[in-house]
Amino acid sequence: MLPFQSSEIEAPLVDQTSRVRDREMLERALADFEARGGKVQVVDTTKRSTSAPAFVISARREEALQADQQRANADAAATAPPAQQLSDESLVRLLRARALAGDTLRTAAKRLQEPLERCHALARTHRLPFKAGYVKGGSRS
Questions:
Q1: 37 — pLDDT class (breaks 50, 70, 90)
Q2: DSSP code at position 4
Q3: pTM as predicted
Q4: Domain chopping of the chain, boundaries
Q5: pLDDT (average), residues 114-139
Q6: pLDDT of residue 141
Q7: CA dist 90 → 82, 94, 112 (Å)
Protein backbone atom coordinates (compact mmCIF):
# COMPACT_ATOMS: atom_id res chain seq x y z
CA MET A 1 0.00 0.00 0.00
CA LEU A 2 1.23 3.46 -0.88
CA PRO A 3 1.83 5.96 1.97
CA PHE A 4 -0.94 8.32 0.83
CA GLN A 5 -3.56 5.58 0.62
CA SER A 6 -5.66 4.62 3.58
CA SER A 7 -7.35 1.33 4.26
CA GLU A 8 -10.52 3.09 5.38
CA ILE A 9 -13.11 4.45 3.01
CA GLU A 10 -13.23 8.19 3.40
CA ALA A 11 -16.89 9.14 3.44
CA PRO A 12 -17.97 12.76 3.48
CA LEU A 13 -19.23 14.00 6.81
CA VAL A 14 -22.94 14.77 6.64
CA ASP A 15 -24.74 15.93 9.72
CA GLN A 16 -27.93 14.21 10.74
CA THR A 17 -30.13 17.29 10.35
CA SER A 18 -29.33 17.65 6.64
CA ARG A 19 -30.23 14.00 6.08
CA VAL A 20 -33.54 14.45 7.89
CA ARG A 21 -34.23 17.64 5.92
CA ASP A 22 -33.44 15.88 2.61
CA ARG A 23 -35.63 12.93 3.55
CA GLU A 24 -38.55 15.23 4.40
CA MET A 25 -38.06 17.14 1.15
CA LEU A 26 -38.17 13.90 -0.85
CA GLU A 27 -41.29 12.74 1.00
CA ARG A 28 -43.05 16.05 0.22
CA ALA A 29 -42.01 15.86 -3.44
CA LEU A 30 -43.29 12.28 -3.67
CA ALA A 31 -46.59 13.23 -2.03
CA ASP A 32 -46.99 16.14 -4.50
CA PHE A 33 -46.23 13.83 -7.42
CA GLU A 34 -48.80 11.29 -6.28
CA ALA A 35 -51.37 14.04 -5.61
CA ARG A 36 -51.07 15.16 -9.25
CA GLY A 37 -51.91 11.61 -10.35
CA GLY A 38 -48.40 10.20 -10.69
CA LYS A 39 -47.71 6.59 -9.84
CA VAL A 40 -44.51 5.12 -8.46
CA GLN A 41 -43.31 1.79 -9.76
CA VAL A 42 -40.87 -0.03 -7.49
CA VAL A 43 -38.23 -1.93 -9.44
CA ASP A 44 -35.85 -4.47 -7.98
CA THR A 45 -32.25 -3.28 -8.10
CA THR A 46 -31.10 -6.48 -9.79
CA LYS A 47 -33.46 -6.10 -12.78
CA ARG A 48 -32.40 -4.13 -15.83
CA SER A 49 -34.02 -3.43 -19.15
CA THR A 50 -31.92 -3.72 -22.27
CA SER A 51 -34.37 -1.79 -24.43
CA ALA A 52 -35.00 1.18 -22.11
CA PRO A 53 -32.72 4.24 -22.32
CA ALA A 54 -30.50 5.22 -19.42
CA PHE A 55 -32.00 7.46 -16.77
CA VAL A 56 -31.06 11.10 -17.44
CA ILE A 57 -32.07 14.20 -15.51
CA SER A 58 -32.97 16.92 -17.96
CA ALA A 59 -31.44 20.30 -17.15
CA ARG A 60 -34.20 21.97 -19.18
CA ARG A 61 -36.84 20.35 -16.99
CA GLU A 62 -35.11 21.62 -13.85
CA GLU A 63 -34.95 25.14 -15.31
CA ALA A 64 -38.65 24.99 -16.15
CA LEU A 65 -39.48 23.91 -12.60
CA GLN A 66 -37.42 26.77 -11.17
CA ALA A 67 -39.09 29.26 -13.50
CA ASP A 68 -42.52 27.98 -12.41
CA GLN A 69 -41.51 28.33 -8.77
CA GLN A 70 -40.30 31.91 -9.34
CA ARG A 71 -43.58 32.81 -11.08
CA ALA A 72 -45.54 31.31 -8.19
CA ASN A 73 -43.47 33.30 -5.68
CA ALA A 74 -43.99 36.51 -7.68
CA ASP A 75 -47.75 35.89 -7.82
CA ALA A 76 -47.84 35.25 -4.08
CA ALA A 77 -45.88 38.45 -3.42
CA ALA A 78 -48.23 40.45 -5.65
CA THR A 79 -51.32 39.20 -3.83
CA ALA A 80 -49.80 39.51 -0.36
CA PRO A 81 -50.79 42.55 1.69
CA PRO A 82 -48.15 45.29 1.71
CA ALA A 83 -45.68 45.06 4.56
CA GLN A 84 -45.64 47.80 7.15
CA GLN A 85 -42.85 50.30 6.70
CA LEU A 86 -40.30 50.26 9.49
CA SER A 87 -39.34 53.51 11.15
CA ASP A 88 -35.78 54.69 10.61
CA GLU A 89 -34.87 53.96 14.25
CA SER A 90 -36.16 50.39 14.04
CA LEU A 91 -34.44 49.78 10.72
CA VAL A 92 -31.14 51.16 12.04
CA ARG A 93 -31.33 48.76 15.02
CA LEU A 94 -32.01 45.81 12.70
CA LEU A 95 -29.26 46.87 10.30
CA ARG A 96 -26.78 47.22 13.18
CA ALA A 97 -27.62 43.67 14.29
CA ARG A 98 -27.17 42.33 10.73
CA ALA A 99 -23.83 44.18 10.44
CA LEU A 100 -22.59 42.71 13.71
CA ALA A 101 -23.72 39.26 12.51
CA GLY A 102 -21.34 39.66 9.54
CA ASP A 103 -23.81 40.26 6.69
CA THR A 104 -23.15 42.49 3.74
CA LEU A 105 -25.43 45.47 3.23
CA ARG A 106 -27.10 43.82 0.23
CA THR A 107 -27.83 40.63 2.19
CA ALA A 108 -29.19 42.61 5.13
CA ALA A 109 -31.50 44.61 2.86
CA LYS A 110 -32.82 41.40 1.28
CA ARG A 111 -33.38 39.70 4.63
CA LEU A 112 -35.16 42.74 6.04
CA GLN A 113 -37.10 43.19 2.77
CA GLU A 114 -36.21 46.85 2.57
CA PRO A 115 -34.93 48.83 -0.43
CA LEU A 116 -31.15 48.75 -0.76
CA GLU A 117 -30.96 52.52 -1.30
CA ARG A 118 -32.74 53.24 2.00
CA CYS A 119 -30.55 50.77 3.89
CA HIS A 120 -27.42 52.23 2.28
CA ALA A 121 -28.37 55.78 3.28
CA LEU A 122 -29.07 54.77 6.89
CA ALA A 123 -25.91 52.66 7.12
CA ARG A 124 -23.84 55.57 5.86
CA THR A 125 -25.49 58.09 8.17
CA HIS A 126 -25.05 55.88 11.24
CA ARG A 127 -21.66 54.47 10.15
CA LEU A 128 -22.69 50.84 10.44
CA PRO A 129 -19.77 48.42 10.04
CA PHE A 130 -21.00 46.20 7.18
CA LYS A 131 -18.75 43.59 5.67
CA ALA A 132 -17.55 44.43 2.15
CA GLY A 133 -19.22 42.22 -0.45
CA TYR A 134 -18.47 41.15 -3.95
CA VAL A 135 -19.42 43.74 -6.56
CA LYS A 136 -20.14 42.28 -9.99
CA GLY A 137 -18.48 44.05 -12.86
CA GLY A 138 -15.67 45.86 -11.11
CA SER A 139 -13.49 46.29 -8.12
CA ARG A 140 -14.44 48.14 -5.00
CA SER A 141 -12.21 51.05 -4.10
A1: confident
A2: T
A3: 0.39
A4: 88-125
A5: 80
A6: 47
A7: 18, 6, 11
